[in-house]
Amino acid sequence: MKLRAALLGAVAVLGFAPAAFAERGADGEVKLTFPQAVSIVNPYLSGGTKDILAAAMVLEPLAVVDPDGVLVPRLAVEIPTMENGGISEDMTSITWKLQPGLLWSDGTPVTADDAVFTWQYCTHPEGGCSQATKYEGVASVEAVDASTIKVTFAAPKPNPYTAFVSGLSPLLQKAQFEACLGAAAPTCTDANNMPIGTGPFMVTGFTVNDTVSMTANPNYRDPAKPAFATAVIKGGGDAEGSARAVMETGEFDYAWNTQIPPDSQAAMAAAGKGQFVVAFGTLVERIEMNTTDPSPALPEGERATAKHPHPILSDIKVRTALSKAIDRTILVEVGYGAGGRPTCNVIPGPEAWASDNEGCIAQDMPGAMALLDEAGWTDSDGDGIRDKDGKKLSLLYQTTVNPIRQDFQALIKDWWTELGVEVELKAIDPGVFFGGDPGSPDTFQKFYADVEMYANNSDNPDPETYLGQYQCKNAPSPETQWQGENINRFCDPAYDALHAELTQTTDIAKRQEIAKKLNDMVTKDSMTVIPLVHRGTLSAHSNSLGGVQINAWDMETWNVADWFRVK
């Protein structure tokens, strides 16, 4: 089966020599610093990577994706395939076997019922699950017996490795979350912030948008792991401060998302206390165009919803002009150096899945101006700002507090100002922006701005579930408690139909062809997403921290159980 081979490669469990782990907890405390503070430790209620990274230290899926893009079992005994009988011949079901003797951190058994419940939790129509696409096409999840989980799909599923795979789709303990279904999900503060898990650590203290304190899980399945007795995640500040705390002062062991300029990286590395690590997957810094009207003049509940199309950005000529005015090569030089590449795709890799789409890379200011002229936006009063029908071409451009992102904002504002666009910049604390709080006006899901900039990526070399985010049904709204992955509210029935075709296509070459078309539909065909930079996943760790394997396909904390103190 070509698809299975392409997705799996050689299945092997990675680890470190047992000698590195003489005794659980023997290496004391490991300290992580995130420039974006953790807001919740439940990946099903947050689209923010910083929250999912923290959760991945506690909650685990049946399988993860390793740094080479290969599936490896985590809570499962093995990866189901057609050859071992785990995938039905008609590709309508996949059956997983749990490892024997698995315990939750509270000492109770992990059973197939927990998987059934997790599916029910994320697919509840009132739950607003952030990871709904992981369960796309799942008709049922059945506990065949206490250790056997059968996932049945509504139609043949060529890529069945979606539900319960990767740090985005872990198992929840039914006993802890069963009162948290549907609209009750965000109200379960204790469960969401201190989930009972199977991972190497368990949460012992949590201050929202500040600090997560953890201790080694006494019921973790490997009695010698984790090497660290406790773990602390300190959030907030900025990327440069996080990097410096590892690379120069040595206060922390690991800094996630050290998104700082190349010259700063070199200066910090010279201190000799740590190292930057980078991996290229599908992480893309992009600008999202809001297709809905975020005006505060609209009633709450209608603002930034499909009820009101955007008065300016609904015109593709305007969106295209804004993209043409950007010089992506300069952005890479300023922000990332060797850690970035200009891109026009939301799926920049693997190479076989990436569209041959480089038309946006070269800046075209004359072309951008011509498009705005064609769209009827002219400077009628000579104040330097284009207008149309008495309305100024004015945009609110928001992103997170981060030195590179503020540099990008400044550059892009200059280019757009040259076009005749009035630009207001807004920088939001990343813990709030990516926090997913339905009551906050400043989350990236709520999108109370005209354009916003952040990075996102597919967690699987096969981008089926990732591309599923742009389906009409996945738009955040008051009805979904502002959860959902379709951030810009893009809605095209043709896109939905083509994605449905992808879910049913078995031939790998045909799947790649469809994925490229879907990529093009949200980028160059509609200019709803404006890709800027294909970013390497860049983080830093101290020289005294061993076992780190940075992973661009899954969570960076995917193998935190294997981390240890270098003696």
Poorly predicted segments: 1-20
Name the helicity range.
10-25%
Mean pLDDT: 93
Q: Between the first and last Cα atoms, what is the distance in angstroms?
A: 46 Å
Can you offer a commentary on this structure?
With 567 residues, the chain is α+β, with helices and mostly antiparallel strands. The protein has a domain at 280-536: Dipeptide-binding Protein, Domain 3 (Dipeptide-binding Protein, domain 3, Roll), CATH 3.10.105.10. The chain has 15 helices and 20 strands. Strands 1, 7, 8, 9, 10, 11, 12, 15, 16, 17 and 18 form an eleven-stranded mixed beta sheet that branches. Strand 2 and strand 3 (71-73) form a beta hairpin. Helix 6 runs parallel beside helix 7, helix 8 (316-324) packs antiparallel against helix 10 and helix 14 packs antiparallel against helix 15 (508-522). The longest helix has 17 residues, at 403-419. It is globular, with a radius of gyration of 23 Å. The two termini are 46 Å apart. Residues 1-20 have low confidence and may be disordered.
What's the arrangement of secondary structure elements?
Layout: H1 2-8, E1 29-34, H2 49-55, E2 63-65, E3 71-73, E4 93-97, H3 112-123, E5 138-145, E6 148-153, H4 174-177, H5 189-193, E7 201-207, E8 211-216, E9 230-235, H6 239-247, E10 254-255, H7 262-269, E11 274-289, H8 316-324, H9 328-335, E12 340-342, H10 365-374, E13 387-388, E14 391-392, E15 394-400, H11 403-419, E16 422-428, H12 430-433, E17 451-456, H13 464-467, H14 493-504, H15 508-522, E18 529-542, E19 545-546, E20 564-565
Parallel strand pairs: 1-9, 1-10, 15-16, 15-17
Antiparallel strand pairs: 2-3, 4-6, 5-6, 7-8, 8-9, 10-18, 11-17, 11-18, 12-18, 13-14, 19-20
Helix pairs in contact: 6-7, 8-10, 14-15
